[in-house]
Amino acid sequence: MSVRTDKSCRFGIPQLEWDSMVLCARDLLQAAAQDRRTITYGELSAVATELRLSARSAGLMALLDEAARPLDECTGTIMATLVVRKDTGRPGEGYFAWMSGQGKDLIDHEALWRTEAERVWAAFAAD
Asked: Rounded mean pLDDT of the chain?
C-alpha cells in the first residue's frame, strides 16, 4: 500500500483535499440515488468550487470517476448516469461515448439513459 503525502497533487489539488472532495462527491451521488433524482455537472463541481474544477473540466470527470467507482462496483450500476447537463437534464456526450465503450447500445440515447437511471435508483431504493 502506498502512502500519500501532502506534496502529491491531482489536477493541482493537494492529495488530502482531493480525497476529501472525492468523499463529498460520493456522498452527493449516493444521496441523489437514494432520492431518485439527478444532479448537474455544476452541482458536482460545487464540491470543488474553492479549488476551481469547472463543470466541463477533465479534473471534474476524474473526480466523478473516482467518487463513483466504489459505488459502481458495490451496486453493479453506473453512478455517472445521474450526473446531467443543466440545459438538457441528460448526461453529456462524453457519458454516451463512455457507455459505447462499455458495449451499450446507443441507438436510443434517451432509452439507454432512462434504463440506467432506473437501475441506479433501484439499487438505492429503501428496503
From this structure: 88
pTM for this predicted structure: 0.86
**CA 41, 46, 51: angle at the middle one, nearest 5?**
115
Q: What is the pLDDT of residues 57-103, one digit of tens each?
A: 788 889 999 999 999 999 999 999 999 999 999 999 999 999 999 89
| Angle in degrees, CA 99, 10, 17, rounded to 5 | 110
Angstrom distances, CA of residue 12 to CA of 6, 9, 17, 57, 58? 12, 5, 10, 13, 12
Separation in Å, CA 66 to CA 37, 82, 96, 107, 126 = 20, 15, 18, 28, 25
- Strands 9-10, 13-14: pairing is antiparallel
Angle at 59 between CA 52 and CA 38, to 5 degrees: 90
Round to whole Å and give the CA distance between 123 and 29.
13
What's the chain's length in residues? 127
pLDDT recorded at residue 2: 47
User: Which residues is 39 bridged to in the sheet?
Assistant: 83
